[in-house]
Amino acid sequence: MKVTSLLIFYMLFALSCKSQTKSERLIMFENELSQDAIKEYYDNQPLPDEKYILVNFCYYNYFELFGNSGAVIVYELNDKASEKLINEIKNYKRLDNDRLIFQDSRHVYKLNNENIELPELDHELGDVTTSKTPKNNDVEIYLIKKGRLKNTYNNEKRNKTEHSFSCGIYIMRNESKIIYWFLIY
After folding, report:
1. Comparing C-alpha atoms, which of 60, 59, 55, 103 is closest to residue 75?
2. CA angle 52, 124, 136 (to 5 degrees)
3. Helices (H) and strands (E) in the chain, counts
4. Are β-strands 100-103 and 93-95 bridged in parallel, bridged antiparallel, or unpaired?
5. How far apart, in whole angstroms, are the C-alpha atoms of residue 150 and residue 168?
6. Could you give the CA distance from residue 82 to residue 75 in angstroms, rounded to a whole number?
7. What stretch of H or E contains 5?
8. How far apart are CA 18 and CA 3, in angstroms?
9. Quick check: 66 and 105 in contact, CB under 8 A?
10. Residue 137 β-bridge partners
11. What is the pLDDT of residues 131-179, one digit of tens each?
């Protein structure tokens, strides 16, 4: 009987801790999007099952102002995750930093002559982005996927049209951090 009680207590404790690990901003992001959009967000994360440390999560909903919204996550990688990422990179398209054009009015970078947009590296992400932009050659950019989403938002006003999206990673050279982005535009 004691073992069963102890096991039940442990499971409840573990589940309550797990639910507290999601940040409020991530919950806001998930509440804003449809299930299809959330599925794309999670399915395309480069290291979904690895043990890494979440350094920062930035959710921005600029759709009304700038025509885009999304999430940017900074991860601190351990050796195992770094090794896995090196193997995964072969599956992603490397983007040329020199082809990026900053669109100040939308706070995004657009890949010249392609319908691919990337978020800027926001100061909210902390010291990892200090003085770095996607245009810097110290930043390697990999596109994981681009596409279109129907029924992107739960908000019915915006739900009537399709939206483009892109997701990928920024790798800061000489650092053990990566940034995963998911941008809807």
Report:
1. 55
2. 80
3. 5, 9
4. unpaired
5. 20
6. 11
7. helix 2-20
8. 22
9. yes
10. none
11. 567 888 888 999 999 999 988 888 756 556 789 999 999 998 777 888 8
